[in-house]
Amino acid sequence: MADEYFYALTLEGAKASEVWDPEAKVPEDYQGGHKLIIKQALLGPDAKEGEVNVIQVEAMTWKESIKVPVATLKAGGPNNQVLLDLSFPDPPVTFSLIQGSGPVHIIGHHLIGGPIEEFDEMDELEEDMLDEEEGEEGVEEDEEEDEAPKSKKAKTTNNAKGKGAATKNNKGKK
Fold first, then answer.
1. How many CB atoms lie within 10 A of CB 92?
2. Per-residue pLDDT tens for 99-114?
3. Which residues make beta-bridge pairs with 18?
4. Which letter does DSSP use for residue 48 in this model?
5. 94-133 burial, b if ≥16 CB within 10 A, otherwise e?
6. Dihedral, 128, 134, 139, 141 alpha carbons, nearest 10
7. Tens digits of residue pLDDT in 124-155
């Protein structure tokens, strides 16, 4: 299971930059992993009216590091905040203010997995649960197969009797 924590940073001043790299501070026996999810970027109240602020992210793809702008904000208008849905599963991630002076606030969630022992216990619990589910499914399927033919036979028998009885009654009335 992952623990979830609030994450926020502020970029202020020309060419401000901040690196998210929690793995640099993690003990060696802790391999649960980290994930950063960014949900919003907004200008602070001290942002200069009319100034354009551009946030750039540098992160790893599965092959290489890339730099890409993720938000453009302008104080004094409707573009003073933006909702984002960015996920960064691999640190480090560098946030930079490549244009403007901010302050720009970046908000999201930091997800942290558990230590190795916790994951081993989780694997064992999942295996036990799967074994139990397979046992229950087999019993339910057997019960359904036994009941299905009986109910079909009962319907067929009832329909035949019903038709026969109706026919006899109709003939007798004529």
1. 15
2. 999 999 999 999 988 6
3. 95
4. P
5. bbbbebbbbbbbbebebbebbeeeeeeeeeeeeeeeeeee
6. 160
7. 777 777 777 776 655 555 555 555 554 444 44
